[in-house]
Each structure stands twice: as structure tokens, then as C-alpha cells.
Amino acid sequence: MKKILFIGALILTSGFAFSQNRGEKGFDKPKDIENKGEKVKILKDRMTKELNLTEEQIKQINAIDDKYKTQAESLKKQIDTLQQKRYRLNKEKKVEVEKILTDEQKKKLAEIKAKAFEKKHDEKKHDERKDRGRFDDRK
Q1: In the Cβ-directed half-sphere of 122, how many Cα atoms lie within 13 Å?
Q2: Are 129 and 135 in contact (CB under 8 A)?
Q3: Measured between alpha carbons, how far is 5 from 1 in angstroms, rounded to an integer?
Q4: Alpha-carbon distances of 75 from 19, 42, 69, 79, 85, rounded to whole Å
Q5: Hey, what's the torsion of the CAs at 9, 11, 16, 17, to 10 degrees?
Q6: Taking Cα atoms as reference points, which of 52, 47, 77, 49 lies closest to residue 64?
Q7: 61, exposed or middle or buried, with CB in 10 Å at 0-12, 13-18, 19+?
Q8: How far apart are CA 14 and CA 83, in angstroms?
Q9: Of 33, 17, 36, nearest to 25 (Cα)?
């Protein structure tokens, strides 16, 4: 039992460690691979090699992965359903609010939304440049 708990803790901590891009000293995420399954396989292979896992440990880890994968997939489906419900709810709310606004108020609301969108879009561009190291405050 202690061994299983230890392996579980090892997997959780290694998951965090292996998920970070660490350059030469750690595990790089396979960035050029599009298929998530292939990425997972590559990371598992690295973990197996670096930790010198036994065949029994690999089997146990795979079983644990399968157990949690099913639960995670179930949660993802629930999240997707809730997001769709929220989207529909917001859309219904917008329709109801617009019913009580005058044409002039609708026009003003559209302008406010456009300005907010533009501001958000500009901030996003600013943040992207900064993240890429191309940010320059001088204009």
C-alpha cells in the first residue's frame, strides 16, 4: 500500500515537473508534435527512462493514468455542457435586455461594446509583444 501511495505521489509530482519546459536540465515538452497521445507517450517514455521504472511500476502507472483519464474526460464533457448552457443563458439575457432598450440606447451600447473590444484587443497585442520580448515602450 505504501508503495502505491508513493508511486501515486511520484506521478503527481512528476506530472508537474515534466509538464514544465526546463531546457537541457529537465524535460522539454515535445512542441512539434500535434497529437496529444504522441506527446503523452514521449513524456511517459522519458519518465520511464529517467526514473528507471520497472515493468510492474509502468503497468501500475498506466492503470492509474487510465483511471484518472476516464474521470477527467467525464469532467471535460460536463464542463463543455455547462459552457454551452451558459452561452445560451447569456444569449437569452442579451435578447431580453435589448427588448427594453430604445434604438438610441442600443446604438450607444453597441459603441460601448466596440470600444471595450478594441481596448481588450489592443491590450492583448501589447501583452503578446511583451511576452515575445519585443516590447518597447518607446514610440
Answers
A1: 6
A2: yes
A3: 6
A4: 21, 25, 10, 6, 15
A5: 100
A6: 47
A7: buried
A8: 31
A9: 17
Which residue carries 501500475 as its cell?
60
The size of the chain, in residues, is: 139
| b/e sequence 80-112, b meaning 16+ C-beta within 10 Å | eeeeeeeeeeeeeeeeeeeeeeeeeeeeeeeee
Residue that has been written with the C-alpha cell 520511464 in this structure: 48
pTM reported for the whole predicted model = 0.47
Q: 74-113, pLDDT tens digit by residue?
A: 999 999 999 999 999 999 999 999 999 999 999 999 999 9
119 burial via Cβ count (<10 Å: 0-12, 13-18, 19+): exposed
Q: pLDDT digits over 54-75, tens only?
A: 999 999 999 999 999 999 999 9
Q: Sign of the C-alpha dihedral, residues 106, 108, 109, 113? A: positive
Residue type present at position 86: R
Closest listed residue to residue 44, CA positions, set 3, 14, 67, 9: 14
Domain regions of the chain by residue span: 2-100, 101-139
C-alpha cell at 49: 527512462
